[in-house]
Amino acid sequence: MHANESKVSRRAFLKTTGAVGAMALLAACAPVAAPGGGAAPAEEAKSLTVWAFRSFAPPADDVLLGQIDTWGKENNVDLEVVAEIEVPTMNDRLMAAIESKVLPDMSAIAGGRVALHYPANVFADVSGLYAELDGEYGGFFPAAAQVATIDGKQWVIPALTDTSLMYYRMDILDEKGLALPATWDEYAATMLEAQNPPDTYGVGIALNKAATDAQGTFTMMLYSFGGTYTDESGENITINSQETRDWLNFVVNMYNSGVFPPDAFEWDNASNNAAYQEERAISINNPASVLVWLVDNKPELAEASAIQSLPAGPAGNFASAGTRFAWGIFNTSPADKQELSKDLIRYLMAPEQYEPWIEKAFAAPSLAKYEEMAIWDDPKRAGFLQGAKNGVLAGWPGPLTPAFSEFDAATPATAMVLRVIVDGWSVDEAVEEAEQLGKDIYAKYA
């Protein structure tokens, strides 16, 4: 999800050294009078290894990586920066680093991965820095605070909060005299009537476990039908319910009506973006990355698009508020490097750096101060800010726990859908398998 597919296919890898150039080094090393006479030794350059995400908004990546490089030069820090896409590249890289305990000094990390990796005891406590930023910039939004806080302390600094809204080809709906759907039942009927296969299909949702964004879409849909993965304690699996069956039957019936593209089984996280940008899908559920791309590349399609919250089910409608990008510092680094990492995070979260970054990015802020920015006055972007402020985490109604993070990483919602439409299982069998998977995972954390 979230980008121009050609950018993603290259999976742009950046490994740069942000050291000062040769001339700057010469200037820094110029002799200085020492107290005892003679030249004082030049200050030894510090070093820091930083891992960052490449997103589906390359201009935002350029801003962020440029800021990191500037900070390194201004502070005489030799930087080794690695930046790749999060799913699966950086997630896999970080998992391997945690297992080997050979970690960078600091790294970007997605919100759901914080609780997943917390039991490995590799995060440095950043409660002091968190409190400092929380006080200076108006406070972290509730979902961001929940991601950062485990066992009463903060372990990451949330930078960007992601929420996904529905995009609709309003020009096509208008042409056919169709209104924007308010409920999931209306959605299924409207998309069927609006589409014109094989040129256009109504529903741009992936049917592939590797496309993890589909898990997010199906999860919010599940909640709107009244289904949940756990109870409020976050300790008991509740997925085996009539509400889950109602949701799964709805998705299966929608699939059987022919509104999903035939190749949705091969889609990855960039494919729904591409389907909408190439005008093959009438609707998708996506963060603001698609809007950012459309404004820059197809402004006429941006104008023809309506963006709003997900349709409602029997239990209402839900929006996700996941931390797209948080900064984590690792306790495997010496204390001086941990302090350097904190200084870099302070620099990046300050308005002079943060505002230019988020203007190019597709996610919403995690701190209340930045909701004052003019970009949120745009009606097409305003909903993304509201989702970041008021949306729920995937573990709702319980807390985000290591057990849930592992369960969610197994994409149980998408797995249930595929069991029925691909493997021919009954709805009961698919739900019972998801329940057993959840129980097996949670038993490891009991």
Structural class: alpha+beta
Total count of helical runs of at least 4 residues: 20
Number of strands: 15
In the sheet with the most strands, the strands line up as: 1-5-4-6-14-9-15
Instruction: State the major sheet.
Output: 7 strands, mixed
Uncertain stretches: 1-41
Short description:
The protein is of the alpha+beta class and 446 residues long. Helices cover 47% and strands 15% of the residues. A 7-stranded mixed beta sheet has the order 1-5-4-6-14-9-15, sandwiched between helices.
Give a written overview of the molecule.
This protein is 47% helix and 15% strand. It has 446 residues and is an alpha+beta fold. The protein folds into 2 domains: 227 residues, D-Maltodextrin-Binding Protein, domain 2, CATH 3.40.190; 190 residues, Periplasmic binding protein-like II (D-Maltodextrin-Binding Protein, domain 2). Helix 3 packs antiparallel against helix 16, helix 5 crosses helix 18 and helix 19 packs antiparallel against helix 20. The longest helix has 19 residues.
Task: Provide key terms for this protein.
446 residues; alpha+beta; D-Maltodextrin-Binding Protein, domain 2; 2 domains
Topology:
Blueprint: H1 5-10, E1 14-17, H2 22-28, E2 32-33, E3 39-40, E4 46-54, H3 58-74, E5 77-85, H4 86-100, E6 106-109, H5 111-117, H6 127-136, H7 142-148, E7 149-150, E8 153-154, E9 157-162, E10 165-169, H8 170-175, H9 184-194, E11 201-203, H10 212-224, H11 242-256, H12 271-277, E12 281-286, H13 289-297, H14 299-303, E13 305-308, E14 322-329, H15 335-349, H16 351-360, E15 364-365, H17 379-390, H18 402-409, H19 412-421, H20 427-445
Parallel strand pairs: 4-5, 4-6, 11-12
Antiparallel strand pairs: 1-5, 2-3, 6-14, 7-8, 9-14, 9-15, 10-12, 10-13
